[in-house]
Amino acid sequence: MNLIIHRGTKEIGGSCVELKSAKTRIIIDLGIPLVDIKDKTKKFNSFSLRKKTASQLLASGVLPTVKGLYEGVDDGKSVDAFFLSHPHQDHYGFCQFIRKDIPVFLSRDAGRMLKAADVFLPVQFGKHKQFFLKNHDSVDVGNMKITPYLMDHSGYGAMAFLVETEGKKIFYSGDFRGHGRKKDLFEKFLKSPPLGVNVLIMEGTMVDRAEESVDSEEQLETKIVKEARSYPGAKFIFCSGQNVDRLVTFYRSARRLKALFVLDLYTANILHELMRKSMPVPSNGFKDVGILFTKHFMKRLEQKKMPDWYKRWRRYEISPASLRRKGGNLFVVYRERSQPELEAAGIRPGSVLFYSQWGGYMEEPSFKPTETFCQRHNMDIRQAHTSGHATIRSLKRLGAALNPQVIVPIHSFAANKFHELFDNVRELDDKEVFKL
């Protein structure tokens, strides 16, 4: 069997892995890179994908060169299958270019998340011939056996994969952690891992952040509650609408303070479409949750000819006037495009914005409008975040549990740091063929 990491050996994001036996080829993940293809000091511009064909993006080096993968590119037989580890754009962002005859395997939760996200986001997953995977239930593709394992990660429905063929076993960790609200998945995996793994392809997002303090979601919740008590005004939440663990953490914080939790149409629909009764949305009977209607998302739903996706929330709508009457006893999901409605409600003195993403993003130009908004209203910005990725301790625990012959780093800007943790590391370059 051959292993080729087309992208991701020396960077976070843009992951694309090919596994090839004598009879079968599969691809795992096809993400947008975080950094520019040619200048690694710059952020990748996802708007460059607009109205571009796969052929054009291949020619410019944006798409990784994988034969038999892209729609409209006549370069041979299609790959046998595509597997998606989880619904984050740095793992699925180029999936819109996959050939329509290629079967796509992913978890049902990831499929639901992406179906809803495609309504709102410019980077599309696209329509595919989808097959939903179940935890530990193996599927056969050609002469390969692929077993999925649900993992704890900030991407909902995240999976790792064990691939077996020709007497060899490769384990792809995908993105994972051991301190989220699904940490029991990680602990159960460690107690009963697959045996005889030859190669572990392991993510290393945090491998060069040994000094960074990492809280559990429960610890983060307690810190948010404590901080929120210091602010008599509204508590605004800056976080990804797809980070379900984090939304639950903020909801639980609001509930402990007997505050109203206010979603926007994007987050409300994402949570609703997951079809789980535990999601904190009014349609699940959560009476301490309201929905703020904004022109931006209503226009988006009208353009998509999906007015039902805002009409179903009308009875739970919180108008700017209602927000004003609630005073400061609010936790409100914030978006830059929701500023007009929030300012129409009036920003109470003593309000705060909880920033719940990686701190480095605050240095980017895209954060400037939010920073200006906070300055305009004398609002503090407080960081309230914990990583969606494995700590060094969790990396070591996974490595010890699987005890592979070789560990291959991926999803890291510091792959060389793996040598400080393990004595069986094989660093690869993008496109290098590793023969097992």
Please provide a written account of the structure:
It is a single chain. 26% of the residues lie in helices and 20% in strands. Helix 5 crosses helix 6 and helix 10 (320-326) crosses helix 11. It is an alpha/beta fold and 436 residues long. It has two domains: 2-210 and 388-435, Metallo-beta-lactamase, Chain A, CATH 3.60.15.10; 217-383, Metallo-hydrolase/oxidoreductase (Rossmann fold), CATH 3.40.50.10710. It starts with a strand and ends with a strand. Strands 6-5-4-3-2-1-19 form a seven-stranded mixed sheet. The protein has helices at 54-59, 89-92, 108-120, 183-191, 217-228, 244-256, 265-273, 295-303, 308-311, 320-326, 339-345, 368-376, 392-402; strands at 2-7, 16-20, 25-28, 81-83, 103-107, 129-133, 139-141, 144-150, 159-165, 168-172, 199-203, 235-238, 260-264, 289-292, 330-333, 352-355, 380-383, 406-410, 433-435. It contains 13 helices and 19 strands.
